[in-house]
Specification:
Length: 356
């Protein structure tokens, strides 16, 4: 990938620190932009019928008089399961500060919406519209994008907009980009379950967590796969008449994959969506990566997604690296930010606009 070596060095540096105020080369020598900002904001979501937190990264100099007319590309960053924007925004800010100050990427605005909610105790709606959880796809596609374009100096076009995320957010970013390819120039998914065809291989783990038989319960987070399967069920196979949770579980009482329920899941499968959308994906830049030691069994899913896109002639970049689900991805942020930056057109809007 273009600039890969530089970006990886920037990513490694970003883990340990963030930039301070400095001249990052965006203007004359006498002009020193102020530091970047990480704001905590909120928006009224018409889709969810409530106020939702949204954290916003603004690049260095955003509020400076010299940059009052400058507009910026927008990245939507979706957080993972059992987490919030704060679980990610600090790492991302460090990576962005150092990538921008080093000249590896252009200035950009990044929004971190709070996608936690839905059926308790799961509260992991997978950014999908569901009668059980609420309309979380519409929250991102309609509410968040409209709010950012109306309240911040975004460029406001699909060519200058991208979506990315980790884990549940990696899934959500890929699903939403493939369902709405006309809304984004690029997508980057870290450690996301983006090919459901390999889910049946995880059924024995769910059974093992439950003594080999139904009922499929869990104790806090000790039964990780059962907990996450229920989370996905409330998103992909909701059923308000079901008990103890308003969803149909994809494993039947005999311990077999329930084909009818799983067919509903496959309607939300990114690999299936990509094949269905092959003719309309167009110039969408697609990046995804995953650690080979991912303890949630996601690496084989991403490798299968890679194979599927290749078989259907869909251009993409897949990076397989040594790391697990929670640690290895942090160092990948600079790479994915760089990939997205390459997909943006970056017109020179003012005499001090960043250029490289």
């Amino acid at each position: 990938m273009k600039r890969l070596t530089l970006l990886m060095l920037v990513g490694a540096f970003a883990i340990g620190c963030s930039s301070s105020s400095n001249d990052n080369g965006t203007g004359p020598s006498e002009y020193t932009p102020t530091d970047s900002q990480l704001l905590v904001d909120s928006l009224m979501s018409a889709s969810l019928g409530e106020y939702r937190e949204i954290q916003v990264y603004l690049p260095p100099g955003y509020d400076d008089e010299e940059k009052a007319d400058v507009t910026y590309p927008l990245i939507i960053f979706l957080h993972g399961a059992n987490s919030t924007p704060s679980s990610y925004s600090g790492f991302a800010k460090a990576a962005l500060d150092n990538a921008i100050s080093s000249g590896a990427i252009h200035d950009v605005i990044v929004a971190f919406p709070n996608g936690r909610g839905g059926v308790a105790p799961f509260l992991n709606p997978f950014y999908t519209n569901s009668i059980a959880n609420g309309d979380y796809e519409d929250f991102i596609i309609d509410d968040v994008i409209d709010y950012m374009d109306a309240n911040y100096r975004t460029d406001g076009t699909a060519a200058d907009r991208a979506i990315m995320g980790h884990s549940m957010g990696g899934y959500g970013s890929m699903e939403l980009a493939l369902k709405h390819p006309d809304m984004f120039a690029a997508v980057a998914a870290h450690s996301g379950p983006i090919d459901f065809s390999l889910f049946p291989a995880l059924v024995p783990i769910v059974l093992a967590e439950n003594g080999g038989q139904a009922p499929y319960t869990f104790s806090a987070y000790d039964s990780t796969f059962t907990f996450l399967t229920w989370s996905m069920a409330t998103a992909f196979s909701p059923d308000l008449s079901a008990s103890p949770f308003p969803a149909d579980f994809p494993v039947d009482s005999d311990g077999n994959l329930d084909a009818a329920v799983f067919a509903r899941w496959m309607q939300h499968d990114p690999a299936t969506l990509a094949v269905q959308q092959t003719s309309s994906i167009g110039d969408l830049a697609i990046y995804f990566d995953c650690g080979t030691e991912d303890e949630l069994g996601i690496h084989p899913m991403d490798a299968a997604f890679d194979d599927s896109l290749t078989a259907h002639g869909i251009d993409h970049t897949f990076d397989s690296y040594s790391g697990d689900h929670r640690t290895g991805w942090i160092g990948r942020l600079a790479t994915s930010f760089g990939f997205i930056d390459d997909a943006f057109p970056h017109p020179a809007t003012t005499s001090i606009a960043f250029a490289h």
